[in-house]
Amino acid sequence: MRAVVFSGVDMPIEVTEVDLAPPGPGEVRVKIAAAGVCHSDLHVRRGEWAVATPLVMGHEGSGTVIEVGSGVTGLREGDHVVLSWVAPCGKCRYCVAGKEARCEVAAKVVAPNGVLQDGTSRLRRDGQMMHHYLGVSSFADFAVVPASGAIKIRDDAPLDTMALVGCAVATGVGAVMNTASVEAGATVVVIGCGGVGLSVVQGARLARAERIIAIDIQSSKTALARTMGATDEIVVSTADPVEALRDFLPNGADYVFDAIGMTSTTEQAIQMLGLGGAAVVVGLPPTGARASFEPLVLAESDQKILGSNYGSVRPAIDIPLLVDRYMSGELWLDELVSSRRPLHEAVASLDDLQRGVGLRTLLIPTL
Hints:
Blueprint: E1 2-6, E2 14-17, E3 19-20, E4 27-36, H1 39-45, E5 55-56, E6 60-68, E7 80-83, H2 93-96, H3 104-110, E8 123-125, E9 128-129, E10 131-132, E11 142-146, E12 150-152, H4 168-180, E13 187-191, H5 195-206, E14 211-216, H6 219-227, E15 232-235, H7 241-246, E16 253-258, H8 263-271, E17 273-281, H9 295-300, E18 304-307, H10 315-327, E19 337-342, H11 346-355, E20 360-364
Parallel strand pairs: 5-10, 13-14, 13-16, 14-15, 16-17, 17-18, 19-20
Antiparallel strand pairs: 1-2, 1-5, 3-8, 4-6, 4-11, 4-20, 6-7, 7-12, 8-9
Helix pairs in contact: 4-5
């Protein structure tokens, strides 16, 4: 099959032929319909996260099950699925407690080992083992994934657009609904209006927040946020966004979501809080990044800093519900797709993302 291969920071990303073994026990093979290009892929490209190489890139995707390994129940050939880069084991203490986003087995796959849950890889090139990215590797014609990471969805949903639910939408909406449990009437600030940030905005709208303030450096993105539920916008130029926010919320916000993950934006999120507020770190920074805050203010103001991994979702439950909300018109995902491009344009798509051009690009292997 064709796949997008990353071999190291100083080496070019290639679209090349690789071999994919059949699914093992508890696994399925999926024909990729679409793969979303995400900032997490940029972290890999820039060497900001440790990964085993060479690897097949991509972690956001959707497709059709075409082969089922032994022991798999609940999935069959022809099923439409969204790929979840957290594939819960269902047995560890976190899964038993209903907190699958913390699954101990999935965490070992997400860590820089680059293998599937049995500790081996299904990928080879010229006989050499290759690594999976986050247990998915969706920048390819096909992927072999754990069955619990292939979430069956309704057949009438547009399969390519549904790729977004596997990362950006689940992460953003889940951060509001699950991690922060935003209540009706709350005031919400969203820093960063990319695919994840706009999903946070929509989650806040669904939670019936009273004020939703969108912040970005591009006016086109804050304007789009307004169409998705934001009540106000701040375009960051030379102004201090913390001071600018006080014009809207003099006493600070109930919730501030950092959908970028830079040290500066995390610090700004904390500074924007009102009494009892919560700063939610959704965007992921480079490994080793450090942010600072004043603990006395945090304690005296009864504030919280929350980390949100994958929107604290339960993939098998939340992903089909998000698809249903799209199909009912409650969630707007088509507006998040800025382009659809063939697999061989993966590098150009990453370049565009690096420059802040567009929102989500979908790589379509059949184009």
